[in-house]
Specification:
single chain, about 250 residues, alpha/beta, six-stranded mixed β-sheet, 5 helices
């Protein structure tokens, strides 16, 4: 079984960043001993170099390997350059246990809130997904911006500008999981054979209504995918359970 933790939207450097909640999250997640952690963007508040340096000290507290993609806040103030220097590549691919492939793609645009994948990155993604299909690998794609509108988030403004083309690629390639953040609201959609999961905010005080800080846990076996929503310091419940597409 592969155990993956997914969280998003830390907003380090902002007055709304809740350090106490973040430290609690580190303790809970380290206790789970996941195989990997996926962070879907907005690590910083304004993309400043000092915020990135502060963020690295926080992220080093996690014991599992952590892989991140940038969010719209991270791309501000030349942050898209700093991300590569301090965090790592903005788009990447890794394979776990020879049959599970995770791809991170950069949906951010410098100094803009809206998301965009763009043709070169889209072609790269299609090529990687073609390989996954040939090898019958379990495929996960992680990005910051949501590809489908999220309920309880008000008027839709910041979905990917090329969401239609990206969603077609994801679903026609039977991508197993699509992970994103951005809206601070947990949600699951299932389209064809693709499960699209939006994580809430791990530790920002910018929360809608009674929604809590939270993170996702994915238990992936040869037969099924279990998705748990873990509210910080509170309840944990099964958010979704699905049979695997590729056996």
């Amino acid at each position: 079984m592969n155990v993956i933790v997914h969280f998003s939207d830390l907003h380090i450097g902002d007055s709304e960043f809740n350090e106490e909640v973040f430290i609690r999250a580190v303790s809970e997640i380290n206790y789970l001993q996941p195989d990997m952690i996926i962070l879907t963007g907005d690590i910083t508040s304004n993309g400043y170099y000092a915020e990135y340096k502060q963020a690295t000290k926080y992220l080093e507290m996690f014991e599992a390997p952590l892989f991140a993609v940038p969010g719209n806040h991270d791309a501000r103030n030349l942050g898209y350059q700093t991300f590569e220097e301090v965090i790592g590549e903005r788009s990447w691919k890794l394979t776990m246990d020879d049959d599970l492939t995770v791809m991170g793609i950069d949906s951010s645009s410098p100094d803009e809130n809206k998301g965009h994948i763009g043709n070169p990155q889209h072609l790269w993604l299609e090529h990687q997904l073609d390989e996954c299909a040939i090898n019958e690998n379990f495929a996960i794609v992680a990005l910051h911006h949501h590809v489908i509108p999220i309920p309880q988030t008000g008027r839709e403004r910041n979905v990917l500008s090329d969401a239609g083309d990206v969603l077609k690629t994801l679903t026609t390639h039977d991508v197993d999981l699509v992970l994103s953040g951005h809206k601070h609201v947990p949600n699951i959609w299932k389209i064809n054979n693709t499960i699209v999961v939006n994580a809430g905010s791990l530790c920002s005080k910018k929360l809608r209504g009674k929604i809590s800080n939270s993170y996702m846990v994915y238990n992936i076996t040869e037969e099924e995918i279990e998705i748990f929503l873990n509210n910080l310091g509170g309840e944990k419940f099964l958010f979704g359970k699905y049979a695997r597409n590729k056996l």
